[in-house]
Amino acid sequence: MIKYYEIGKEREENDITGDKKKGILMGILIGCVVTAGLFGIWSKVKDFEFGKKETEYEHVIMGWDYLADKKFVSEKSAESGYNTVAPLWYKIEGSKSDIDGVRLKITSDSEYVNLAHKNGYKVWAMLSDGFSPTRSRLIFENEDKMNSIIDTIVEDVDAKGIDGVNVDFEGDGRKNREGFTRFVSILSQKLKESGKVISVDVTGYDSYSLSSYYDRAELSKMCDYIILMGYDEHWSGSKVAGSVSSIGWVKGNIESTLEEVPPEKLVLGIPFYTRTWRVVEGQGVEVTNAFVNVRKAPSTDGEKLASVKKGTFYKLLGSVDGEEIAGSSKWYSINYNGSEAYVHSKYVSALDYGNEGRASSKAHAIRIQNNMLKEKNMQVALDEASGQNIAVYENGDGSLTKIWLEDETAIKKRMEIVKELGLAGVSAWRLGYEDESTWKHVVEGLYGEK
């Protein structure tokens, strides 16, 4: 005897024909499917309600993985905040004068690729020329070597299931312009035959020697994406302090790039680092000799506190007479680490740095920046000129520490530009520089707070 239910009543049957059995089995099957479907829908609803639903980002959100560390693809893409990684796996190195000594170093990792795919990431292997335009020119001028390198890359990409290649060559102007464009053209054609993606990193327009290297219009025709490296407005060689990526500067470079590259192919590169600036304002002293000894008294008999190299600068306190050297008894009094010290006028110049000041800097990751803010209890205010927050701290030697902050304000302002101009996405230099909230600011800047 089989008991079953109809809507609103219960019924028993002693004799069930084969057709009825089929009907019941079909009913059970449909019921299971419906139940499973409803359960799946309910699961998705629950995931949505609790923020666990996997996100499919509309934009490319990439991190350059200079260390090629699997930890950066070990969690789900929806949890990390980015969907694409560019590990440095291909590097051209070797001789800068002999083409036979030029080689391609490959460090690609199948386990990395498999883990990345499992967790929802695309992998664009980064190809670097090692910042050597001279070596690159050797390749561009030798068809056999160029094709050999390209073929080796494409074979490796295919063999390991890598999704594409990110080309990062930073050259020296028009000398390499045509050669680089041809190199990318051949690489692009062979990658696309395998259904792979190619992107190329380009600079902004500030420096002709760097900027003119890239034929952006031609590159955009053959590449899936052009990545504008929107940073290093102020860099290690800058003598005036400033942001590595002020908002107006970034937008101006994007708008210039859009004259050559369509927005749906343009990705904005953003810094996950800043620079900590030491700034001397007003009267200062700068070392002009190869080196000079800083002494506790204006005499060679005075205790030597340090030997400092050319370009080092200090706050000027005044001038005094001291031991005569090379026909001059003039010594300058400076603030050295919070104490008065002396340098002879023969080896330095006294300068008025004005309100702009004379600066030197060190690069720091965002996570280090944030630690410094807490430790030093720095004053933070909005700098209207850069569109960023700036932190200022007075040092013991009379100089100032200034940091243009890479924080929620700066990141979200750049994401507003990405949305406003309809760009393809964003890429950050680099993975490992962020703190626990940095990628959250990127995603919220693009899509709003969840």
TrEMBL record:
Residues 33-449 form the GH18 domain. One of its GO terms (molecular function) is chitin binding. It holds the Pfam family Glyco_hydro_18. Gene3D superfamilies: Glycosidases, SH3 Domains. GO terms for biological process: carbohydrate metabolic process. The keyword Transport does not apply. The chain crosses the membrane at residues 23-42. The keyword Transmembrane applies. Keywords: Membrane, Transmembrane, Transmembrane helix. It comes from the Bacteria. Signal peptide: none annotated. Residues 282-352 form the SH3b domain. This is Uncharacterized protein. It comes from Peptoclostridium litorale DSM 5388. The lineage of its organism: Bacteria, Bacillati, Bacillota, Clostridia, Peptostreptococcales.
